[in-house]
Amino acid sequence: MMNSEQQLLNQINTISKTYDLVAKSTGENYNIFKILGLESAEVKTHSRFLAELLNPKGSHLQGDLFLRLFINYINHLTKGTESEVFEDKLLSNAINLNFYTSNVSVEKHIGKVIDEEGGRIDICIIDSHNNIICIENKIYAREGDKQMQRYSNYAKKYKYSYLFFLTLWGNEPETKGEEIIYPISYKKHIVEWLELCKKEAVNLPILRESIGQYINLIKKLTNQTTNKEMEKDVQKVILNNVADSFIIYRNFETAVYSLYNLIIRNLVDKLNIYLEETEWHILKIGFIQKYSDRGLIFLSPKYLECHDGFGVEEFNPLANKHNNFGNKIFFGITNWKQDRGFLDQAKGILKANSYGGWINYDFPKSNIFDFNLSTMELINYLKNDAQIEEFTNEIYRSFIEYFEKNEKAYLEYLKRKDLIK
């Protein structure tokens, strides 16, 4: 006999399949951004799409309509009526922009990066009255060194300046200057503004559908359903089965964490065998027990006198804030006690890229898997031991390639620093 929890899951599964049939008949899952592989391209996709809508001279030929909608929407938020992120940093005056004379640019160059100056602002809006809006756009990337501080210093040159830090979830910036920086999110603020834009474009089918496809892309990146009617139907079933829904909710995180902790354990077993005859060992393993845990495997030379080495991180598909590259597994060199002096030295000598506390970062490469764990499709795929083993092997193979490519140069660097003999 089927228990009540299983019956509840079956009801939701039936709703999902029904709307899948609707999607098939309407073609709503066809998304040009996904097809072209541009889902997470910050500049090529997101900054350019948003800037084109904001541009009064944009190809949409709607003048300053969408820019006005954005400014009006933000001004409403800063009154404290809609968004908690602004409650402790309200604008003393609403943004007052001359829409007609506003120029919108992408990747605006503000000089060579030198300490607290220079860089490229993702989206920059400047009007004839010497007002400036700077929007720093982050999908999965972390901030560069003193990035928002550099932009803050640049914005001081203008009469009125407004700095926004745009991420999927509304994260606070890590680097700040003297100027107030407003965190905004794709999940809430951009989607809500775009819905207003779509409403105004109702009689312009190509523009309306382009905005709609972009909204669907954002909802995919932020783990939201794209069908509001399906949401209502699922919520109705949940509210009619509160006790059973709570049991499922209470066990969902544990079930997901158990799956990825198993992958971490399997990967550790493979790495231990590989490292037996090398100068390396696994110094730290971070399993996932709560929302804020990332999942980590950290390798260090056996005779190293400090906590530096190679790491594999980001195994938690449910964490959506304060991570390095969204929910994407990555490799890199780090000091797990976050010794910035060591990392800055290593970055300079090894000529490596960097984000946060990681240098020389890279991502697993596979013809089989996308290692962005935020997609529920991946969890759905990892149903049995064979598929879990296949997934683990792809991470292992890709990490060993990365490790062997970078190990020699890194050990030479450590020896020159007299950290190992």
Could you describe the 3D structure shown?
- This protein has 421 residues and is an alpha+beta fold.
- 45% of the residues lie in helices and 16% in strands.
- The chain contains twelve helices and eleven strands.
- Helix 1 (4-26) packs antiparallel against helix 8, helix 4 crosses helix 6 (186-200) and helix 9 (242-275) packs across helix 12 (385-416).
- The chain starts with a helix and ends in a 5-residue tail after the last helix.
List the helices and strands and how they pair.
Elements lengths: L3 H23 L5 H4 L6 H13 L10 H13 L25 E7 L10 E7 L4 E7 L9 H9 L4 E8 L13 E5 H15 L4 H17 L6 H13 L1 H34 L4 E7 L9 E6 L6 E6 L16 E6 L4 H11 L3 E2 L2 E5 L13 H6 L3 H32 L5
